[in-house]
Specification:
heterodimer, A: alpha/beta, Ubiquitin-like (UB roll), Rossmann fold, seven-stranded mixed β-sheet, globular, B: alpha/beta, de novo design (two linked rop proteins), five-stranded mixed β-sheet, 9 strands, about 45% helix
Chain lengths: ~850, ~425
């Protein structure tokens, strides 16, 4: 059912999902309607196509009945009632159009306009303003205001229109505010942020940043979007284009794996903004700042617009024909002289699933090599694929919206807000509305753990010990289900450390807390275990994954409820269409059916093997499509020397990168908004996005590039775009996963934790909260939130080392060194450091080893 | 006349627990613990007919019976001591003078509704009364009357004093709850009513200081005794805060149903200097005026309502012939515009607009049509707001214009007061 603004009407009470709801019949404007019990009069009216105007109502916020615009007449009520918060009752007789109601609404509008500056011509909200629309509808043609209109100005409002910047992106104009409190309510209720507040009283009420703060939280862009008037606008969009002149295109966030739905606003020149496109299965209509501002890299003036070819050690511009024929010639030479196994391909996790599939088909079916991978962000395993337990959990049939039915959620190794913005909000909703209990275990204190009942911090690299401890606790206390004592005793022998006591001591968490978590999980009816990026980035993740598998089995946790969450927009898509060296039997069969040919037999190499083999001169030709391992893959020096060693490197990307600098041929690549396609999100959900605009003439999409190379090599892929889309969808749909085997248990052995005597501090490397991957540096809005790299350090540790905020610090590991400004963490407490890996100027991966992550020493740089 | 609240007003030690006990204090609660089941307490309070003394006059026992006992959530009591209605100072005298009476009342109520945490929300400006209540609570804890296992009954009760930050709106029950929770004092929409979802989303009873202070006397003397005071529908005694142009302003406790003239003339000593009575605000500044010919109106909920006003909080403000009614109304509307919380549109913008309009009439800038505009703005506020503050602001405006329209018209036309007077404040 579509409601106002084309949004689906929210009438279901999720807490009783699955149960038939009691029906209530009422009469609105003379017509009867039956709705679920608990539905508001407003929603019931909307279902009937009766429009009731609102300002402060929002389908996903608690109604506060503040604006009084939705007043309706209810028979037997002593006075008009707010439709947004009046529950439909049997036999209720509602009128929305009486003279009294119309007068009341006109009265409200008059009040709102009383001190409104009526500056529509210079207001950015014009054309999409609720106040304009409602005044237009109710026709307030004369003002009875005889006094000077109130202007809200303070010492920080400098602008001629009384604008005031209250955040890196957000500008407030209090004169236009209708005080609906939606912004504050979003912040508090949904995001759990308190940086925005209402100050003063009565008609002096102002919406402002908390004293000394600015509105820079990760979901802050939403407050601009839900502002019904032009009181909150953002620098990204304001005064650039009138909204009715921009076209809208359905799209998706191209960064993280949650698959937040967005709408791109653009014209023939460029993209202008991204807004939410509510999808209740995923994002509830709230998008994070990366989804909102993370489109801007497409507009960047730094985009590559012509191919480059390395001539005499220097990359010089070349024509596409020249570039493609060189690639084709060199790939052919390598293939013919050394064999297909010497060719390899790496593709980024945010290329569309069609590109990923075509990449796979080109390499496997045409070049006959299994050397390909999409996992370019984290330390890879020694074998060519993840372990059975890991793959099983990674591909678990998880559904974001189902989290609302969870009674206990254990978040393991994730700064949730950063890794999974949409899942984070869903978890907060479950916590706030349905009383879901949240527990966390992480190597550091995290922002999103504020709703955690017990925030456990384990010592670095002891993830496996922690989970082993949890299993001990379950077995020792007989919390397990579905197995007998003999089996439990057997599972216990598969654990290292061998006792709960040892495990607890190793990971530095009190036994009682581990036992308590085990108890809570075992008593829950619908528990979840969600593992995120700290887990995935840990070197021994396969060991920990074994533990998570066992844990889920011991507690009888549903197959869909224990998952290792993917991290990039199309990580799951690339996985499903087979961009990895080893394939499941099922996928092999599907591909053979599709292609009518056997697959190459060579074992195939994953990312780390490809790089290693390059060093050993076993791989000569590498094609990297939309990825930047030189900046992102651990152990920078190793990656660089591997890339240097290659005979022939082709890099297709939007920008010149550390990786493209090593290339023999660089191809300008189209961004996601410049093509149609689909992503498969963390849940395995296939979602399409549309092409918003044409890329520059000199730029080609990944699909076009693969086709051109194939054609030049006389290896026609013979797939037009429609057929490709179709075929890709078939492959994605054919995905089958064997369910977790409940009788199966793996060994869970904590690896030896290496000594780091001279390098005492654990360094975590990952995305800054306002950055993702290596392209967000080209998003000016995101750069306003975090403009430069930094070393995040706990105030405790900083004090111990005499480091002040903003001072330069030298960070040194066995593999490299770096100098960065120190920034005190709001959350960290222990001896753990963090550096974002989103800035090309910082070769942070140089500090991280492939074996054991980052261990560093730091010292304050003398003030000279 | 028998008194409940002010019986020992002249004893300077009445606020101390020993004196309070000497005067028969903490007997009622022990009796309740011994002889009554919680539901019997509620039944008794229902039978006594005691009505909420905060202004609305809602039967207290009935309010308690709405509290669901099976939610698994804790139940709270909030005692409303945020007395801010202009003219009202009845709770203050109880808090200052007889704080143990409140504590005993709270204990009875908490026992009845099965609450183990009670909050007393005291107006921020009431520093001295708050200190007295705080001290009394400490005395009660020291005696073992509060805390764990009170009187060996196994009943636990903690009372927390919460002082306000100077906002009239926090006397409104839902804003009071927001304020206790640490939020901005904003009214919330009902339903859900606080009895079902109040403080921290738990069932909550909110009762006025005077209401709760009535309880011990009911259990000490019996329902019949209580009902022997006051009228059939408005039983008991009540404190009236008499102020304005009277000779002896002050707090007077009388039976409900006592004629207004008795309070003004017999207790208050009549109008100052023998001036002529002009109008009476009978129940706090928000209630409509009573005119001199209505001076014999009995002071009970029904009779005052029938006379066209409200008993409200029982703050009687007497206005004599020397006052310009435009000036008086300006003072009132300035108060309400200042105290509007800013939550809902009609009250936020409307009260501020009324303030501007009435001030300009008073200042001699009134325009023809202003009175009609004011009344129309009143229409757009009345009954359109979340909480009663909007109505409270509008009722005196309408009433003043209804009864003294000539003074407003004179002001607009002649740009000065109709009343020629040497009264110093006008």
């Amino acid at each position: 059912m579509q409601g106002r603004n084309g949004l689906p009407v929210c009438v279901k009470n999720m807490s009783d999902n699955g149960k038939e709801k009691e029906q209530v019949t009422l009469t609105i404007d003379g017509k009867e309607i039956s709705v679920d019990k608990g539905t508001t009069v407003l929603d019931a009216a909307t279902l009937m196509g009766i429009h009731i105007p609102t300002f402060c109502w929002h389908p996903k916020l608690d109604s506060i009945g503040a604006c009084r615009m939705c007043l309706v007449d209810v028979e037997k009520f002593p006075k008009p009632a707010v439709a947004c918060a009046t529950e439909a009752m049997p036999g209720m007789i509602v009128r929305t159009d009486t003279d009294e109601i119309v007068k009341a609404r006109r009265g409200v509008l008059e009040f709102m306009l009383l001190n409104h500056p009526l500056d529509c011509p210079t207001c950015d909200k014009g054309g999409e303003c609720d106040l304009q629309d409602n005044v237009f509808h109710y026709g307030i043609d004369k003002s009875r205001q005889a006094f000077t209109r109130r202007r809200v100005i303070d010492d920080q409002t400098t602008d001629a229109f009384d604008d005031k910047r209250i955040g890196p992106e957000i500008i407030r104009n209090m004169n236009r505010c209708v005080t609906c409190y939606k912004c504050i309510r979003f912040n508090k209720e949904i995001a759990g942020e308190y940086d925005l507040g209402a100050y003063e009283r009565g008609n002096h009420t102002v919406i402002d940043a908390a004293p000394g703060e600015q509105i820079d939280n990760f979901y802050s862009g939403n407050v601009v979007e839900i502002c019904p008037v032009g009181a909150l606008t953002n620098t990204d969009w304001r005064y650039k284009i009138r909204n009715w002149k921009a076209k809208q295109t359905l799209s998706l966030c191209s960064h993280d794996a949650d698959g937040q739905n967005i709408m791109l606003w653009h014209d023939q020149r460029q993209l202008w903004r991204a807004t939410s496109r509510r999808n209740d299965d995923i994002d509830d209509g709230w998008i994070c700042n990366i989804a909102r501002y993370g489109y801007q890299y497409i507009n960047s003036p730094d985009r590559l617009k012509t191919p480059l070819i390395k001539k005499e050690g220097k990359q010089v511009p070349a024509s596409w024909d020249e570039a493609i024929s060189l690639i084709s010639k060199r790939f052919k030479e390598i293939k013919d002289s050394k064999g297909s196994v010497c060719l390899a391909g790496l593709i980024g996790g945010n290329q569309s699933v069609e590109t990923a599939y075509l990449f796979n088909k080109f390499f496997r079916n045409k070049l006959h090599t299994n050397n390909l991978d999409y996992r370019l962000e984290y330390i890879d395993l020694k074998g060519s694929d993840e372990t059975e337990a890991y793959n099983c959990l990674y591909r678990a049939p998880f559904t974001i919206a189902d989290l609302e039915q969870a009674d206990v959620v254990f978040v393991f190794g994730s700064n949730f807000i950063k890794d999974h913005p949409a899942i984070n909000l869903r978890l907060r909703k479950a916590y706030r509305k349905f009383g879901t209990k949240v527990y966390t275990a992480n190597p550091v204190e995290t922002k999103s753990a504020d709703i955690s009942l017990d925030e456990m911090i384990y010592s670095p690299d002891t993830e496996t010990a922690f989970i082993a401890g949890l299993i001990h606790a379950i077995i020792d206390n007989k919390y397990y289900k579905n197995i007998d004592e003999t089996k439990a005793a057997e599972v216990k022998t598969m654990l290292a450390p061998a006792t709960l006591d040892e495990a607890a001591r190793l990971c530095g968490i009190e036994q009682e807390r581990i036992v308590n978590l085990a108890k809570v999980l075992s008593e829950a009816n619908n528990p979840y275990i969600l593992a995120g990026d700290y887990f995935v980035a840990s070197a021994k993740r396969h060991r920990t994954a074994n533990g998570m598998y066992d844990l889920a089995n011991l507690l009888g946790i549903k197959d869909s409820n224990a998952i290792i969450l993917a991290s990039q927009a199309n990580s799951m898509g690339a996985d499903r269409v087979g961009v990895r060296p080893r394939l499941t039997e099922n996928l092999k069969k599907t591909l053979i059916d599709k292609w009518g040919e056997e697959l190459p037999e060579s074992p195939g190499s994953n990312t780390s093997q490809i790089l290693n083999n390059s060093l050993d001169e076993e791989i000569d030709g590498l094609f990297i499509l939309g990825a930047n391992p030189a900046m992102r893959y651990p152990d920078g020096p190793f990656v660089n020397s591997a890339l240097d060693k290659l005979d022939f490197l082709v890099v297709a990307d939007l920008f010149e990168t550390a990786t493209s600098a090593k290339a023999d041929v660089v191809l300008p690549l189209a961004g996601w908004a410049e093509q149609s396609g689909a992503y498969v999100n963390v849940e395995g959900r296939y979602q399409k996005f549309e092409k918003a605009q044409d890329a520059d003439k000199g730029i080609k999409s990944g699909i076009e590039i693969i086709h051109s190379i194939a054609r030049a090599m006389d290896l026609s892929l013979n797939l037009d775009n429609a057929a490709l889309m179709h075929e890709t969808k078939d492959i994605v749909d054919a995905f089958e996963r064997e369910a977790r085997d409940e009788a199966k248990f793996f060994e869970v052995k904590q690896a030896q934790i290496p000594e780091h005597d001279n390098y005492p501090y654990r360094l975590l490397v990952g995305n800054d909260i306002h950055h993702f991957g290596y392209v967000t540096e080209h998003c000016p809005s995101l750069m306003r939130f975090t403009p430069e790299p930094y070393l995040e350090i706990s105030p405790n540790l900083a004090e111990k080392l005499g480091i002040d905020e903003e001072t330069l610090v030298r960070i040194e590991s066995t593999t490299g060194k770096l100098v960065l400004k120190a920034r005190f963490s709001e959350y960290f407490e222990g001896d753990v450091l963090f550096i974002p890996n989103n800035f090309s100027a910082t070769e942070v991966t140089g500090l991280v080893s492939r074996e054991g992550g980052g261990w560093v020493k730091i010292e304050k740089l003398d003030d000279k | 006349m028998e008194q409940v609240f002010l019986k020992y007003i002249d004893d300077p030690n009445q606020h101390k627990i020993d004196t309070y006990i000497e005067h028969g204090g903490y007997q009622a609660i022990q009796k309740v613990f011994k002889e009554y089941q919680p539901t019997e307490v509620i039944d008794t309070v229902k039978a006594s007919g005691v009505r909420g003394r905060g202004g609305a006059g809602f039967p207290a026992g009935l309010k308690w019976s709405f509290v669901p006992q099976n939610t698994g959530k804790p139940i709270y009591l909030a005692c409303n001591g945020d007395e801010s209605e202009p003219g009202t100072c009845k709770d203050r005298v109880i808090m200052e003078n007889n704080p143990h009476l409140i504590i005993e009342g709270i204990m009875i109520c908490c026992y009845a509704i099965n609450a183990h945490h009670a909050f007393i929300y005291i107006r921020g400006e009431f520093a001295h009364p708050a200190a007295r209540v705080e001290a009394a609570i400490n005395e009660a804890y020291a005696k073992g009357y509060l805390g764990k296992n009170i009187f060996g009954t196994g009943f636990d009760l903690d009372i927390i004093v919460h002082t306000g930050g100077g906002a009239y709106i926090c006397g409104e029950e839902t804003s009071l709850l927001s304020s206790i929770e640490g939020s901005r004092g904003n009214a919330r929409i009902r339903p859900p009513f606080p009895a079902v979802e109040g403080l921290y989303k738990c069932p909550t009873v909110i009762n006025n200081v005077e209401t709760l202070s009535s309880l011990p006397s009911i259990f000490n003397n019996g329902v019949e005794w209580y009902r022997s005071h006051g009228t059939e529908k408005s039983p008991g005694t009540k404190i009236f805060s008499l102020s304005g142009n009277v000779n002896k302003p002050g707090n007077y406790e009388v039976d409900l149903g006592t004629p207004l003239s008795y309070v003004i003339n017999d207790l208050g000593g009549g109008i100052q200097n023998g001036h002529k009575l002009k109008a009476i605000i009978p129940g706090g500044s928000s209630t409509p005026l009573l005119m001199p010919d209505q001076i014999d109106t009995p002071l009970d909920y029904e009779a005052v309502a029938e006379a066209g006003s409200m008993l409200g909080s029982g703050a009687i403000i007497v206005i004599d012939e020397r006052s310009c009614m435009v000036w008086v109304l300006m003072k009132l509307i300035n108060f309400y515009a200042h105290e509007s919380c800013g939550r809902c549109t009609p009250c936020r913008e409307g009260t501020a607009w009324l303030k501007q309009l009435i001030n300009r009439i008073e200042n001699g800038d009134g325009q023809p049509g202003d009175i009609e505009l004011i009344l129309d703005v009143c229409d757009n506020i009345m009954g359109r707001t979340i909480c009663p503050l909007g109505d409270a602001a509008v009722m005196p405006v309408r009433s003043f214009i209804q009864h003294f329209r000539d003074e407003f018209e004179y002001h607009i036309e002649h740009k000065k007061c109709k009343v020629e007077t040497d009264y110093p404040f006008v």
